[in-house]
Design a protein that fits this description.
By secondary structure, this protein is an all-alpha fold. The chain is 86% helix and 0% strand. The protein folds into two domains: 33 residues; 131 residues, no CATH class. It contains six helices and no strands.
Length: 170
């Protein structure tokens, strides 16, 4: 019994320590993002990578999500003779819940995996160590522009998802 409690305690401490390290990493990336000089070209490049390149996935998933909501909502509301509420129900469901969540899933699946693979390859080929040797902070150069670009692109992609989804439900 004691070894089980010891194991659970060590596991919990390791997880809390890892969460603390991730929080400190994110905090340093945010603070470095707003320190001059800003890497505007990198930010614009990542906005294109995150926003424009993910647009097709967001458009398709938004349209078909709206279609499914329209079909399912119609059959459910028809039982109560309330088909006139379909537009409001579909718009409310997309704007409040499905739009932000599904657009984030689509962009994370497409762009997040590409970013992780790119940074992992850079770590494996020692390019990040080369940045350190050139006195370039890799967090400011590699992570901060991606965070700023994500903060700019994601609300726009979510709005596009919502509009296309509402059109699909129409």
């Amino acid at each position: 019994m004691l070894s089980l409690l010891t194991h659970i305690g060590r596991f919990t401490l390791r997880q809390l320590s890892e969460m603390g390290r991730m929080f400190l990493f994110l905090l340093s990336a945010f603070t470095l993002a707003f320190r001059p000089p800003a890497k505007i070209r990198l930010i614009i490049h990542h906005i294109k990578t995150i926003g424009v390149d993910s647009l097709s996935v967001v458009l398709l998933s938004g349209f078909f999500t709206g279609m499914v909501m329209g079909f399912q909502g119609y059959y459910s509301l028809r039982k109560f003779n309330a088909e006139s509420w379909l537009g409001s129900a579909a718009a409310l469901g997309l704007l409040r819940e499905l739009g932000p969540v599904l657009s984030a899933f689509m962009v994370t699946g497409r762009t997040g995996s590409a970013m992780a693979a790119e940074l992992g390859t850079m770590r494996a080929t020692e390019q990040i160590d080369a940045l350190y040797s050139m006195a370039i902070n890799p967090i400011k150069y590699l992570v901060s522009p991606r965070i700023i670009a994500s903060l700019i692109a994601m609300p726009l992609l979510t709005a596009i998802f919502d509009v296309v989804g509402i059109y699909g439900a129409y």
